[in-house]
Design brief:
- The chain has 5 helices and no strands.
- The two termini are 30 Å apart.
- 23% of the residues are buried.
Length: 111
């Protein structure tokens, strides 16, 4: 039982870390697009590639911010999307509800 709790805590933390990393990648992509040298480059493709999510969907056209947000933030098909990571973190949190503080539980389920 202790090892199961430890495993769920570990994965809860890893999924939250992955969601934070993906959010930072999206922010970095927004900053890259604003640079003067970004006129003809495909910055969003490089952001999606850096996240390891290019295999999920790789259209031949230039990727837009909308595409990147859909793939990296909202996609249920992408296991690295923020939505999927938080869903998995919540599932691990529910499995060990008694081991979490009230504040942690509320933070995990806020939104």
């Amino acid at each position: 039982m202790l090892s199961r709790t430890a495993e769920n805590l570990y994965w809860l933390g890893r999924y939250v870390e992955r969601a934070e990393s993906t959010a930072r990648l999206i922010e970095m992509g927004r900053r890259m697009v604003m640079l003067p040298s970004a006129i003809d480059n495909d910055e969003w493709r490089s952001v999606i590639e850096a996240s390891g999510s290019l295999d999920i969907e790789s259209p031949e056209d230039k990727l837009t911010e909308r595409d990147a947000v859909r793939i990296l933030l909202l996609s249920t098909d992408n296991p690295s999307s923020i939505r999927a990571c938080l869903t998995n973190a919540r599932a691990n949190g529910r499995a060990i509800r008694t081991a979490l503080t009230q504040d942690m539980w509320e933070a995990l389920n806020d939104g």
